[in-house]
Amino acid sequence: MHSFSPLRIKNHTLLPMVQGGMGVGISASSLSAAVARENAVGTIASIDLRHLHPDLLEQSKALASQEHYDRLNRIALDREVKKALKHANGQGMIAVNVMKAVSDYAALVQQACESGAQAIVMGAGLPLELPDLTREHPDVALIPILSESRGIQIVLKRWMKKNRLPDAIVIEHPNHAGGHLGATTIDDLGSGRFSFARVLEETVQVFRQLGLEGEKIPLILAGGMANVRKISTALRQWGAAAVQIGTAFAVTREGDAHDNFKQILAGARDEDIVEFMSVAGLPARAVMTPYLQKYLRNEQKLQASAKADPRRCVQSMNCLQVCGLRDGISKIGQFCIDQRLTDAFNGDVRKGLFFRGKDPLPFGQQIRSVYDTIQYLLTGNAAPQVNHALA
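RE: above sequence
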């Protein structure tokens, strides 16, 4: 048994642990339901969930158009949310993560609510209109992901004008998290303004200035938190209500991705984890696999030949509002992120882009269960396990 105070969101009393949303397909119904069954927050990443449904992939071949793909992705999201809710057995919460950076974000938010998601988590941009998108679903918890107090203040002021407050706020440290990061440039990742202690202190001041001290909005720390001592420090000393963890859950047995994906993440050494600019215009962190090594070797040449051309969206998905490849933005990424993340989900070690957090995993190279992971992170106790080490 752990000795931490529970996380309270809406009418849910939960373990102080949130599973981060990871796409394409890395955190879907299997992983999110397993986390929710332990009475924590399980999260489905809404990005291109067609890849978990062979019939939808087959339908995708019939028509190469953004409208068609978007419709099929919403069908996939509906299936995944309903499946997760069913297998959660009434425990925990099922959240849906929607990136503000994707072009279909408004429709994905609405679909998630209609499908029964209990929370919407939104990052990769300021979710200023999230209360408007969910106005007809007041029971759905709204949780923005932000990295500094300035962004938190902007969101709070805008939402207060709409008579809505966040049900929790995820504070993500870009120098530790995986995937897309909440900073402007790679050089900015280590800025002191992202320090958890500083952001928490400044956020308390923002609450005070806005008269929100009594609202008790839970603050959830994300990025490098899959560590027993860090969790204890965050919850006991810093006043955080919970922690959010991604990579450590991605490599669990219940994780939705291919076993090769889990092996790449779990086997990565410190020197294998690198930062680069994504096509979405945000810094990103991933494992240096053959594809990424080749891309970074040719990045400057690709950026020099960047040009705005809709035909460069080879899948006709237009999945991002801003895409360096399609829009010819020479300072950011020049590749199809959906293709590369899909390859990673399917376990293609040669072609895939494998997002990963910066810090060590709790069980090293072992693949363990969601239960083992949560129990260890909250108590420091890990049941012995054999035959799950990576080859």
